Amino acid sequence: MAKHLTWIKRFAFALLYIGIWATVSPAQGFCPQRIAYIEENALSKLTLPTMRQIYQDLGCSSKFIALPGRRALSSFNQGQIDAEAFRLTLVEEKYQRPFLRSHHPVLQLYSYLWVAPDYKETDQRPFGYVKGILWQEGYAKGKRFSAFHNTTNLLKAYNSGKIAGFLASGTAIRLKTEKNVLSPPPIAFQQVHSAPLYHYTQEGYRKFIMLFDQHIEKHKPFAEISEKMQVPAEKSRLITN
């Protein structure tokens, strides 16, 4: 009888243990744990505090990891990260795993070709772009552009006069100009790209994406940033060579 009671106690303890973990596991599975964002990127730095706050509001204590654009993509494809803070829909043809995209865009990206104030069409210097930023790679292909590993190196090349201009979002350059990082301050020569940026996760986070969308729709946390995204451009012609 004593042995029988001992067995019952052990069985009850096992059920309690399973019950505890049954309540914990769904909560853990709800949250993407590792979220990538593009390193040395002004827009990432600007939006990251807001993205962190959204995750906290949804009950997630996730880790945000800075990676180069291409590394973030390969890490997503290898299952090493669970989400990307924001990407253009261009990324979808690069994903090799099932994914989920937020229904509502995080931001509307307005991007420009920026040039030095003394730029002339006879200028033989190349323009610059950052590897791994898909819209920049697409625009620069076949044109007189040099590739850089990150925005920091790109802007150093501009400041030293090695490039005549570069591709970047309006918000990024507005922030750099306000901080006197760029000398001389560049001119928005032409708007070359406009598209929504979405939050992406691996396939298993459908409930999270649903609540993420509800939060975005209700609180509009990126509204103030979005208002600063667009700037007037000087020209309307394409740079074709």
From TrEMBL:
This is Solute-binding protein family 3/N-terminal domain-containing protein.
